[in-house]
Amino acid sequence: MNVDQLSIQELPEIARQLRRDVIKMLMISNSGHSGGPLGAADIFSALYFNILKIDAKNPTWKERDFFFLSAGHYCPIWYASLARKGYIPLTELSTLRKINSRLQGHPAPGHTHGIPGVELASGSLGQGLSVAVGCALGLRLDKSERRVYVFLGDGELNEGQVWESAMTAGHHKVDNLIAIVDRNNCQIDGKTDDVKGLNPLADKWKAFNWNVVECDGNDIEKFRATLKQVQSFKGKPSVVIANTKMGKGVSFMEDDYKWHGVPPNDEQGKKALSELPKTKFNDFIEFDWEK
Amino acid sequence: MNKYKITDNKATRLGFGEALVELGNENPNVVALGADVTGSVKTDLFKKAFPDRFFNIGISEQDMIGVAAGLAIAGKIPFVSAYGEFASGRPFDQIRQSLAYSELPVKICASHCGITVGPDGATHQSLEDMAIMRALPHMVVASPCDYNQTKKMIKASLNLKQPLYMRYFRDNSPVFTNSEDAFQFGKADTLIDGKDITIIACGLQVWEAILAEEILSNEGISVRVINMHTIKPIDVEAIVKSAKETGAIVTAEDHQKHGGLGGAVAEILAQYYPVPQEFVAINDTFGESGVGTELMKKYGIDKDAIVKAVRKVISRKK
Ligand SMILES: Cc1ncc(C[n+]2csc(CCOP(=O)(O)OP(=O)(O)O)c2C)c(N)n1
Ligand SMILES: [Mg+2]
User: Fold this and answer.
1) Same fold, B8-175 and B189-312
2) What pLDDT digit, counting tens, does each position of A207-232 carry?
3) Ligand 1 centroid distance, CA of B37 (Å)
4) Tens digits of per-residue pLDDT, B288-309?
5) What is the pTM of this model?
6) Pocket-forming residues, ligand 1, beta carbon under 6 Å
7) In the sheet that A238-243 helps form, which strands lie side by side, from edge to edge?
8) What is the CATH class of B8-175?
9) Which fold has domain A8-290?
10) Catalytic positions of B, please?
């Protein structure tokens, strides 16, 4: 089922559906990232089904908001969101990471060999914020009301370029820009505190002249309300530090960095799906064992 | 009949990880740096053995190169490790200034190179790394053909005075060289002798070349196969000798056609002994997601592509 804007009450259900989609996509591709995408399902539900001004039937609509996925490895949840929204056929979700597919392991733009709704390649971490800043500056030159949203991982903040662009945005007071940091405290080699500590994270952004708000990124309503609130903030760029759990929704993946980059095997996938009951939106594929 | 036997199927990255631990045991100045991918590039073996001599720099590849340069100045022997693209492309200017221009003996150990890294797709497929690293003065650029050679290369790198860029791969691949054979940077290995044409390959394409030779020798074509494990400084003598004796060259690599092994060989041929050359390489395009073997076929860098190139280059011989 393709869906457009949803009511606030429906967002948790689409979030659960997106999680089911991600699990199934990864079971089919047998390759890809579980933890980040599952943990960010609530963020994507709020963005794609309530917040972003976009039109799936007209992906290059002149009034659209921009969304950039700086942390490209989160793309399974993005592809699922775009498919549910109607940018691509739902059935195409089963081609993730396969040869000749548009659903590349890391996103390619729609105007090359990726899918509509994707406007920038990502996968090499740390580059998206700069592009978002440039896009926001461009919109400002045009006196446009359109906004730019960019999604970053917390481990991704290890990259120096993120802080170069944070400084650029703060300096230029790019207030039509909203950065969302998925603060799941995990990266590949371990907990962010053990690999390279980020704290005090909010203070860092503040010191770069950003408007900083923290919220629970797995509470859709709170996250949505936070975005609504920062949308009208003037004079500084805004960053929402969304505290989430990696793997949220699947008990045996939650808060475990080892799920950063691996897909569930068949048994794990079945268990995961059993913890995420079916929704009214219907799965994009029914496995034989489900029939 | 195939002249080489597969003795095992192991990843080159594992050869790196194991050899680094051996070096760590032999030399207390050996230190290792990682960039949040230490498990997948196998630096975690060193980390477990020598926790004090391992530094996780996080996802900060540019910083990692600089820190390694500092460690080298302080008398340590740093091995940095990451995925190929993020070990070469991301910190290119840091490598240029702080390692190459400063002539510091840091070893850049680049795993997951080439299109065969597969499902992650184009952003993770380093296909330009040999070209950009080779363009830098003082850099040594090398790519082993199997697990055994990777180990030998890592061991031999200890005494290099220049910075090294070493390119290897994620997937398991045939082990066919002997762990006792000698290894020397800059000195190519002639694996199979022949007189009609020479295939010069590096990395995983060396095995593909051996498979191609088998097909071609059944057709009565006598093929020489050279493992050009060091792309810089390249073995000029081996190239010129083969050009003179076989009159045609095919180069094979998992890298862009421009500026890689093929380019390096062409530079030598043009200067010393021009003969026809065909390039088995990625043809000026980005890769895509897929399984390594599927991609090798689709992008024309497998044994079949080599066989085709050999037939073509022979038809071009005067
Ligand atoms: C420049 C660059 N370096 C390294 C990588 C490999 N890599 C992919 S995801 C990742 C960890 C990212 O951590 P985070 O942003 O917190 O994402 P999460 O683990 O929470 O999904 C790393 C190191 C990369 N994609 N790009
Ligand atoms: Mg994280």
Assistant:
1) yes
2) 999 999 999 999 999 999 999 999 99
3) 8
4) 999 999 999 999 999 999 999 9
5) 0.97
6) A 35-36, 71, 73, 123-126, 153-156, 184, 186-188, 246, 260; B 36-37, 59, 86, 90
7) A66-69, A148-153, A177-183, A238-243, A211-216
8) alpha beta
9) Rossmann fold (3.40.50)
10) 61
